[in-house]
Amino acid sequence: MRYTKLTFACALALSSALTAPAFADPVQDALKNDEVAWDIVEGLTTEIGPRQAGTAAEARARTWSVAKLKMLGLDNVRIEEYQMPTWVRGTEVAEVVSPFPQKLAITALGNSGSTPDTGLTAQVVYFDNLAALQAADDRQLKGKIAFVNHAMQRTQDGSSYGAFGGARFIGPNIAAKKGAAAIVIRSAGTDYHRNPHTGNTNFEAGVTPIPAGALSLPDAENLQRMIARGKPIELKLVMTPRNIGMQTSGNVIAEVKGSSNLPPIVIACHLDSWDLGTGAFDDAAGCGIITAAALIVKKAGQPKRTIRLLWAGAEEVGIWGGKSYGEKYKNEPHGLAMESDFGADRVWRVDFKLPENAGQLAGDIASALSPLGISRGTQAAGGGADVGPIIDAQNLAIIDLQQDGTRYFDLHHTPDDTLDKVDKAQLRQNVAAWTAVLMKVANYEGSLALEPKP
Amino acid sequence: MRYTKLTFACALALSSALTAPAFADPVQDALKNDEVAWDIVEGLTTEIGPRQAGTAAEARARTWSVAKLKMLGLDNVRIEEYQMPTWVRGTEVAEVVSPFPQKLAITALGNSGSTPDTGLTAQVVYFDNLAALQAADDRQLKGKIAFVNHAMQRTQDGSSYGAFGGARFIGPNIAAKKGAAAIVIRSAGTDYHRNPHTGNTNFEAGVTPIPAGALSLPDAENLQRMIARGKPIELKLVMTPRNIGMQTSGNVIAEVKGSSNLPPIVIACHLDSWDLGTGAFDDAAGCGIITAAALIVKKAGQPKRTIRLLWAGAEEVGIWGGKSYGEKYKNEPHGLAMESDFGADRVWRVDFKLPENAGQLAGDIASALSPLGISRGTQAAGGGADVGPIIDAQNLAIIDLQQDGTRYFDLHHTPDDTLDKVDKAQLRQNVAAWTAVLMKVANYEGSLALEPKP
Description:
The structure is a homodimer. Chain A is an alpha/beta fold. Chain A folds into two domains: 262 residues, 3-Layer(aba) Sandwich (Aminopeptidase), CATH 3.40.630.10; 151 residues, Glucose Oxidase, domain 1. Chain A contains 16 helices and 16 strands. In chain A, the strands form two sheets. Chain A has an eight-stranded mixed β-sheet, with helices on both faces. An eight-stranded mixed β-sheet of chain A has the order 3-2-9-5-6-7-8-4, with helices on both faces. Chain A is elongated and about 70 Å long. The termini of chain A are far apart. The interface between A and B is medium-sized, with 34 and 34 residues. Chains A, B: Homodimer. The monomeric form is inactive while the homodimer is active.
């Protein structure tokens, strides 16, 4: 009996191996075999490394990307340049002067003002969170260094960034308006390494930027413990970033040409990175994922709709690439937008924003994703930063493949965003998920048009 | 029935609470209640921070320690100074110049030579490990930057440090003798953060020190990937450490006085730390553990033997404190030596080096440690760096409480050695283990003398 069963199973396996083409299923092909996504992440992080927008490194990254995308066989590969204001990092040192002299690990936030070259020393005023800073009397802050703490925790959906990131997004502007000499925040991050998290902050027109830095979590907690001892804390900051004016940045665009004139699907990642890490998670991975998936779809047969890849420039420092794309292409009808910009960990949920008539498409996609461990969410898809402007311009349909963000804010905007953090198996699961979606949506002949905006 | 049982249990608990003194067992007291060890680690890391030997920070740490140890009620608290040569860090930047320009995270090794202020640029010559460097022809290295890789992995007993640390310990000397312009090594560490591991290296008398730095693991692997592409790699190093001559360092010594004239038990930790982190794991934790345990033993009743605490200075940079102690006290008979200098994670094994007549003592100690999850090892105890000189001078008996080193080399000599890495429960388990040992050994009236050295 046992012998018979085994023989039958073997015969079945053998027959399957002999008759079926290997991985006729493009999704399985992606999951088991893809090397393209890894190759792009490995290449960008090794051969280019950090590629801050507006710098020579970002320009080298564009040249590298064009060569890579052409070599991979994509169509209409091109660079589309634009100009953008550019801020660059200088020296950055933070040092408790008294009563507990020691250095603290700090990094300047994008758009931070500069201290004098010899630094700035002032007393620290502590705030538990952004609300406490907002509520503070200006007299408390005048000439002082505000220190804004918060309690950001790891979340799978990354929602803690929105909830606690305000200390970075708007804290410096508030502190500047209240007359603070400078501000330091607990990094908008979740790891306990001495690698502070940078990221843009913005000052309102007419507000003079003050020096604004982020402390690593161990340093923020050390400063908090010092403050808890009840003595005035004198902190010295030397941070000398500067604005170097308008510089050239650019998008890299490539396509898998469709067989019809149906509006294209635009899929985006961003090519620029912050200067501290090598931008593996943020966002070489996204570029690797969308490109690998588009190529697998192409290999499976020409899709009906063109798939347009937008490797956006200058996302980190103000979404200049996304805005440039939105402006340039606002009059060319698009079918749907997607974006990959949340690391390299596995996709766990799919969200849709589709017209009512496309209910079957959503169901088909959800079914195709289910074997990959991806469930269907209940909220409307929102897109991403770089496809935001074209979505807004055209009220586009959107599909979001939500990645697991549990460890994303351990790495985000830190020196630790390096290749070794990328898990090959999870990266391939992303490629497989994107392949599953693109196979359906790029071959969908129905209308994807949403009602015009109210 | 159920009511009766509960009543009985409650009555028993109540009776126990009313009649027994709380935690009559000092080991349980340590495990459940100790705050002293944490308080010392928290205080040193917050109020002093990094405390490199020979610097003002180490001097502040001595002052802090004397006040703390007196406040805790220890006897004969004192500083014993000595002079030692002192090396201090300068600028440190590593940058691939071509063909893949980007910065690499580097830190200078202790005793590293200096580059010119404008830096040094040379081609990188790759070696898989120390043996490959040793085997290299001098002509390969002349004027080049040696890059020594290795495959160090996490080990519970820390043995990988000895096995793979040679790239740091002796690699620079070998490279210097072969005519290399400089050397960079993969950090002797096991974590993937952009925080390279420093630590001393040594050049033989007559060998001119060359610039010697450690790359973080992500950076070492990035450089390795660049090299694998087959093109010559030009690396620029700017490292400007300098020797500032003989400086004052010192040991802090305190005692729990014994009731007899039996030779004292010396227990050690080290007060100095490397300059990059705040020295929580290495070795404020050790000082916290031994001190907390000694105080609990004291609270349980005056021990027969004096317990002498050696908070050694200048361990990291050449064991100057341990050598000073060994020289100063070589003629005062000691009973036994112990040391805590392997972080703050739990003790998992006990090793002995005791005279044959003390077999019962070893058995008693092993029994007392067993409930803490500590097993008896089969190798002879070796002591530690700071008690090494006095052990050598007197052929002392030793007990080693081996700590779990699985994550020790994630933190060792990096900026990441900060308070947040210390787990309170594991720290208390250490205090409990030390309490168990000291209760036995400090009250042991038999001879602890080993045979004189052969």
